[in-house]
Design goal:
The protein is an alpha+beta fold. It has 8 helices and 13 strands.
Amino acid sequence: MDYIASEKGDTAENLDPNSSVSNGSSKPNVENKPCIDNGKAHVQAPTEIAACSSESTEDSALCEIPEQIEFTVVFNKNKHDITFAYDATVLELKAHLERICGVPQSAQKLIIKGMARDNVTLRNSGIVKGGKVMLVGSKMDDILAVKSAPKELQEEKNNSQSSKEPLSMQKIHRKVLDKGIPPDVMPGIKGVKEPLPPVPLSGMLNKHGGKVRLTFKPEQDQLWVGTKERTEKLAMTSIKSITSEPIKDHEEYHIMGLQLGPTEASRYWVYWVPAQYVEAIKDAVFGVWQFF
């Protein structure tokens, strides 16, 4: 093992021909003290040399470097190799990722073993060497684009909604609702808010009367809309708004419209959504994830 060393000048000891060094006798041994850094022993210089100090060599400087952890952050199908202090907090990592990925800290969700809390260190959050961390969030440009929707369009939307009859009474929806409650739909509960279950929401119907299931994929920032024919994988950011209303005479269920484009005509309608999950669905799509 290499010792930490520093060069000496012409001291009196070096110049004195009668010194114990110059006459061939050995200089008394000085005890070597190890400097422990994260489980790795670095041999400390002899006592007259200040190891791990401001005058120490490059090797001794390693004693002051925090333990690092290497892992991969995945965002929008892009992978970023990250090396970061193992005892730094998740919030500090978010500040670093904001510069790399362009997602503001406040809009970031890091998925490690569930949602990572800001005040937890990377060590305690469960990150391991070579592991993967999923970053879910929207870039500032996307956030501003959503917030800058014209007021006129919003007012027109509000006025049109107020003047319309209830969704469940409209002819376009009655042709699906008149078939009755699907036999395999999940039970609905009126006046209760519950988190999303660990399984997909199934047994609901689309506008054609076909079966629909909703699967939420937070690690991919996607909502999967599955039918008998195919599964559509929708990015959360592609859903502009969500409209829902209780079904008349069956308030334990809702009609829900997922708006996928700039106008109401782009809504994807889902019927017989259990009422207790409506708010959790909105939270999941617009950024308030809950893990159970």
